[in-house]
Design goal:
The chain contains three helices and ten strands, in the order αβββββββββααβ. The chain has helices spanning 2-5, 121-139, 147-166, and strands at 8-16, 22-23, 29-30, 37-44, 49-55, 63-71, 74-82, 88-96, 103-104, 170-171.
Length: 182
C-alpha cells in the first residue's frame, strides 16, 4: 500500500485470539500463543484513511487480499485469492468519474519459476519473491522491493503492535530503530 499511495503516519490496531482452543493433527489439544485476527486503521501522509483486516482462522479461501484505492477522478481495485489447492486468481478493475460501473482490466498471470510448479499458490508466490531477490543479487541490481521498503513496513508493524498493546492511536516513527522481538 505504501508503495502505491504513500507512507502510513499513524495507526490504531487491535489483535485478538478468536479461536482459543484447537487440535493438533493427531487430535491432541492445542492452545495458540499468538493472535489469529488483527484489524488496523491508519492515516496516510496525505491525510487519507486506510483500513486493514487479517485473519488466519477465517474460512472460504486459503488466502485473499483486496486493495482499493480511491482517487479524485476514479478508483482502482486489485484483488487476489488462492483457493486450496487450486491456483491463485487475481483481478484488477478501474472506475473513472462518470462511469456507470467498474471495468475489468485483463492482467497476464505472473510467470512462476519452474521449481515452484508443484507448490500451493501462496507458496509459489513466496518462491517467486525469493527468485527475484536471488536474481537481483546475481545481477547486481536492487530487488523489486528492497530493504528500505521492508523497513518502512516493519515500522508500521511495530506501531500497530504498540497500538494494540496500548489500545490507542500511535504515530509511525520513521527514525526509530526497529523494535526487537516485534
Amino acid at each position: 500500500l505504501q508503495w502505491l499511495v504513500g507512507d502510513l503516519v499513524e495507526v490504531c490496531a487491535r489483535a485478538v485470539i478468536n479461536v482459543p482452543e484447537r487440535r493438533w493433527p493427531d487430535g491432541s489439544p492445542a492452545q495458540p500463543d499468538g493472535e489469529d485476527t488483527a484489524a488496523m486503521v491508519g492515516v496516510l501522509d496525505n491525510g487519507a484513511p486506510v483500513a486493514f483486516l487479517a485473519s488466519s482462522v477465517a474460512h472460504e479461501v486459503r488466502s485473499t487480499f483486496d486493495v482499493i484505492v480511491h482517487f479524485s477522478q476514479g478508483s482502482v481495485t486489485v484483488g487476489a485469492e488462492s483457493h486450496w489447492p487450486d491456483r491463485a486468481r487475481g483481478r484488477l478493475s478501474v472506475m473513472r468519474s462518470g462511469d456507470d460501473a467498474p471495468r475489468a482490466v485483463t492482467v497476464e498471470e505472473p510467470e512462476v519459476p519452474a521449481e515452484a510448479g508443484a507448490l500451493a499458490p501462496q507458496d509459489a508466490a513466496y518462491t517467486a519473491i525469493a527468485a527475484e531477490l536471488v536474481a537481483a543479487i546475481g545481477e547486481g541490481r536492487p530487488a523489486a522491493s528492497g530493504f528500505d521498503d521492508g523497513l518502512r513496513v516493519q515500522r508500521v508493524i511495530d506501531a500497530a503492535v504498540d497500538s494494540a498493546h496500548r489500545r490507542e492511536w500511535v504515530r509511525v516513527d520513521r527514525e526509530a530503530p526497529v523494535l526487537a522481538g516485534s
